[in-house]
Automatic annotation (TrEMBL), chain A:
Its main location: membrane. The lineage of its organism: Bacteria, Pseudomonadati, Pseudomonadota, Alphaproteobacteria, Hyphomicrobiales. The keyword Transmembrane helix applies. It holds the Pfam family BPD_transp_1. It is a multi-pass membrane protein. It is found in: Cell inner membrane; Cell membrane. Residues 60-268, 354-548 form the ABC transmembrane type-1 domain. Belongs to the binding-protein-dependent transport system permease family. It comes from Rhizobium indicum. The keyword Coiled coil does not apply. This is Iron ABC transporter permease. The chain crosses the membrane at residues 12-41, 61-87, 94-116, 141-163, 216-235, 247-267, 279-298, 305-327, 354-377, 398-417, 423-444, 473-496, 529-548. Keywords: Cell inner membrane, Cell membrane, Membrane, Transmembrane, Transmembrane helix, Transport.
TrEMBL record, chain B:
It comes from the Bacteria. CDD domains: PBP2_Fbp_like_2. InterPro entries: Ferric-bd (IPR026045). Keywords: Signal. Residues 1-22 form the signal peptide. This is ABC transporter substrate-binding protein. PANTHER family: ABC TRANSPORTER SUBSTRATE-BINDING PROTEIN, THIAMINE-BINDING PERIPLASMIC PROTEIN-RELATED.
Amino acid sequence: MHGYIKTGNSQPAWLFPFVVIIVLILSVLPLARLAMVGMAAFADGGVMTVLSETSLWSATYYTIVTALLGTIISLVIGCLFAFLLTLTDIRAKGLLSFFFVLPMMIPPQVTALAWVQMSGPSSPLLKALHLAPPLGSPQPLYSVGGIALLYGVQHAPLVYLALRAGLMTLPRDGVEAARLSGASSLRVFRDIILPLSLPGIIAGAAISFVSCTGNFGIPAILGIPASIFTLPTLIFTKFSAFTSRTFGDVGVLSAIIAIISVVGLVIQDRALRGRDYRVIGLSGASAAFELGAWRLVFTPLVWAILFFMLAAPFFALVAGALVPAYGVPLTFKTMSLHAFEEILFRQAVTRTAFINSLSLAGATALGLLVVTVLAAYTLTRRKDALSRIVSSLIEIPYSLPGIVMAVCFILVFAAPIPILHVSLYGTIWIILIAYFSSFFAVSLKPVVSAFHQLDPALEEAARLSGAGFFRRLADIILPLIAPAAGASVILVFLIACNELTISALLWSAGTQTLGVAIYNLDDSGSSDLASALSVLVVLMVVVLMLLLEFLAKRLPKGVIPWRG
Amino acid sequence: MKTIVSAAALVAASLFAIPASAANLVLYTSQPNEDAQATVDGFMAANPDIKVDWVRDGTPKIMAKLQAEIQAGNPVADILLIADVVTLERLKEDGKLLAYKSPEAAQYDAALYDADGYYYSTKLITTGIMYNTSAAMKPASWKDLTKPEAKGLVTMPSPLASGAALIHAQTLAAVPGLGWDFYKSLAENGAIAAGGNGAVLKSVASGEKAYGMVVDYLPIREKAKGAPVEFVFPSEGVSAVTEPVGILASTKNADAAKKFVDYLLSEKGQEGFLKLGYIPARNGMKLPEGFPARDTIKVLPIKAAEALKNTDQDLKTFSGIYGSN
């Protein structure tokens, strides 16, 4: 691949060690600290006290049950959209894909708030339509089923994206050969497409399951009022009843979530092993099926699903922000912009939260980009075992639930740093470091795929003409990977801006993030303010996604998740 | 190289753009966001040279945050303005509070502040019954909530999430004829206890539940905004917390903190609370709109020292009845 030029000497000697040190700080140190606390708890018998609490076992049960149900729901919706949007000639695929991926980018607690506003006797929207259930009707979403349903909605795009990636490489000639031999569409689907897309489905299910087990926003808003605790919300409530044992207890609880996540990923790995569907021939099976008359069934179906997933909850959220007080039906007379006024111009907290989230997200996205460019450069050039280990170490914090990483960083930084005597706990810096750790993998992926597309000959030519490392970086590499770098920055920015799970444990006075502000407003009973802030956040997400859409033409394939 | 340098500069700039808390004072409070903001705005208008940052959460959660920070060696708060004296009494006994004799104390009933100046009550917040106006029964007594008409329709804040709710439970538990048995029969009638007072307001105003135990100002204020709710002071009497203010011994800006305490106790500060819909603690103040005359409100007694001693046991008893974590 690199011709006759030895690749090892094209990069400076400090580069790889530099990347290794960063990975040690961001991945190895925090996880090792968690492991130490876990082992210490084992040694002094503290684990037995935690393990003997019934709350732990009911939380583990609810975590697994809601995650399994949620995964099934996300599989059903995700697969339907992946098959329809990849293999058929359904219209407006780009638009459908954009809308379908949107829920994944919206903070989970906003999704939960929107759905609460949409259903139950409290819904301003249903009241306005005179459809609200009678007094005393329970909010149906405050239940295991409600949590699972929203998990399904939130994570269906993950299944969609995982499956879609596989479907794009399906052999078109295989399908055509079957067709020529007289196989029906159903037969082709069952005998060729389904078996070949199984790896994608399994991968999607595993990602969805792991994301469900780590979700905090949805069970916090839907579960706590009904006394249904999952492991992440149990950790959160343990922190809300702080005792001298808390640090140790949450260490053990985080370890249990980490184990469930890892088990999910291992099962996926086992399921995929031994299935080698190496396909030959032309790929790109776009429009292998013509819908024909079925268009009349599927087109309304997908738009109806999108309506219930996106439009209805969003309008409910807007309605919830416009009512002057609880229980007042929304009419043109009662409508008021008070909530928007209050959060935009009166509340210092929302202003602080906006500034904090935007600057944290900006600093994470740009700061990680510098590390990412260097890491991607050395990791794509080196092909040894060590660089593969480093690559997987970067992946671990991202695949673990945010609450586990938050606990890790609390354990590392709760006490003042030795030598320096600086305390990071309770400052914004601990959130920033946790973000760096959690979103490193997100930042790295687009840049690595850009490096893979880069022709090494260009850089080698520059090197032979005597250009130093930084010179080559500035004049050749950076211009060529600029679009991917832009996408990396926007993706990390988008995710970090909407983050709640990590900051829910790490925030303090003056360091509230948008996620925390929304959760806290709802928790204090100001759900009109929480809704208004959520509406603004959703609008911000859509603007950022549109920005990526504009970048799309200049990006390597697969960098923007919702585009083919 | 130039790009690297400018990228690095950009990163450095965005890192420094992260606001390190520039406030002179940090207030931890359990008031709802809008009230906390109004309180701090009022103080900063009177003291333009002092900037105040604030954090709001339920009293138990605020205390957890503070305890975690103290354990990590980095307490952030300078001032506490939280639901009840019992919590502050505990901090006083642990030596975490700063004594300050405010000159404003002369205008207060001696029962409303600590004689050594560790904490001062700022207002009277009672807990009574709110109901949705479309509910069939109009409750007049605590015991009405155990009637069949209220089956499955009652909600209350959890003492694990709200300081006022803890005092309320401890107060009612000491009333002859009510006691823990009252809480048991409520639970048998399908009452639930979860979240804070905000959650109760939401649940009753929206019609998920018909009746709720809740602090007075929330439903009275929401009713004025048009929400379909009513608040009643039950015949047996109401429990009350006084939302005391105290300065943490670890504060780095004791002078500003003392000014904050003086402001809250001053006539101006008390008028601010009045405007927000709270009963001011200071002598000779009016009552907010929507409240009955003060002498018609019967406040049930609570012995703070005893409540403090029994807190852990009472929390266990309550959790045992309502099966909450």
